[in-house]
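ingest -> validate -> predict -> emit
validate: passed (alphabet ok, no gaps, 205 aa)
predict: started
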Amino acid sequence: MPATQLDLRGLAARQPPSRRHVASVVDDADAVRVLGPVPALAAVLTRLWRTERLPAVPVSWEPADDTASTGLARALGVGTGAERELPLVRDDHGGVLLAAGRVTAFGEQRRALSRRFGAQAYCDDSRVADGPITRIDVRPDWTAADRVSVAVVTLPLRPVRRETGRALQIACEPAQVVRDGVPYDREVTKWTWYSDDRVRWRLRP
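emit:
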């Protein structure tokens, strides 16, 4: 059966698609072909997960030409190889992470990147932050199953604390989360990203 196409090529790299529109296209599909940036693919996987249709519905992706999309497409090997099942990095606020997540002080992003905020964070059992920091970056590690890469910046131009593991847990002063380029819509004081070893999604080349 041919894949149902969801064309979101007009979507800006930092703009999430309409949940209602994604649901209207995805909910009855036996397979989905996504055209657009990383948030478009993330929205489809989020919908399939919430409706318990992963990994029954295979997904193919035609990425946009922005840096995040081309980088993720290269990491996933889009357009190459056979159909395969891949891990899914989720968060405890109902979203998924495909390319990159960031936690900074809450506020306008340019200013937040230069401000520090108090945080305590663990990557699995390793404490990676305990005190004022500038930001935390996290990426799914597509070279290994069920693993994320974490980088903690305490001060600009200072050495970065790096760790890998299955999960990152953060408790902090009010902070801004950006997942795959899209800012979360409110401040947070707790956040978790984790590779869910119970869930897989199917990437069709």
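The chain has four helices and 14 strands.
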